[in-house]
Automatic annotation (TrEMBL):
Enzyme class: oxidoreductase
Enzyme Commission number: 1.3.3.11
The gene coding this protein: pqqC
Record lineage: Bacteria, Bacillati, Actinomycetota, Actinomycetes, Pseudonocardiales
Name recorded for this polypeptide: Pyrroloquinoline-quinone synthase
Keywords recorded for this protein, A-Z: Oxidoreductase, PQQ biosynthesis
Amino acid sequence: MPALGEHEFTASLRALESRYWSAHPFHERLHRGALSKRELRLWAANRWYYQRMLPQKDAAIISNCPVPEVRRRWLERIAYHDGRADGEGGAERWLRLCEAVGLDRAEVLDERHLVPGVRFAVDAYVTFAREQPWALGVASGLTEMFSGALMRRRVVDMLAHYPWIDRADLAYFTDRIDAVRGEGAEALEIVLRHCTTRAEQDAAVAALAFKCDVLWSVLDAVERAAG
Ligand SMILES: O=C(O)c1cc(C(=O)O)c2c(n1)C(=O)C(=O)c1cc(C(=O)O)[nH]c1-2
């Protein structure tokens, strides 16, 4: 099979947006203001596990990658989530959101609310990054191409529907919206440059489909625990 042109390859990646978790019924309820406080707490506490594993996922990609330029760029992601010091960074901003929905830090950090399906799905994502070629690890993160619009909508909808949450509590999302715009484009550029044969391109599309399934499964598990 001949390799796809850049335009076609990008279109096959973007076509996976239909499988993105923006359409999941639990997210639809979150955005409609239909979640109870208990459900919001369950969502925030479980998503914590995703947030806290992202740096390990990114470190796995770096450890598999022989290209200095890619490693240098990818390192920024770890620093973004971990921050430069205690009390800073994306993980910290997620904890702030957890507190705003009524969780205390201890119960988030000890993961007592974490449900097995979320752990399985997130661990599968990290394992994928550890075991697959590094460029496929990068491709699996391309859900970020779809997340900017969703996060913008999330800020508006959460402020409208959950009056006890204020804008500062949503710093995780407001800060992330700008970062994701840059990172989504950067990751796409890396994938286009390094997945050049048809087999590599097909594997990249499959990696992104896998990631959509990871995220979907996370919300399935949260929804089931909430129900
Ligand atoms: O709020 C969201 O809907 C959403 C989605 C995603 C995503 O699509 O994976 C990420 C994020 N947020 C996010 O904040 C984030 O840092 C992030 C990193 C990654 C990744 O796979 O490396 N995805 C996402």
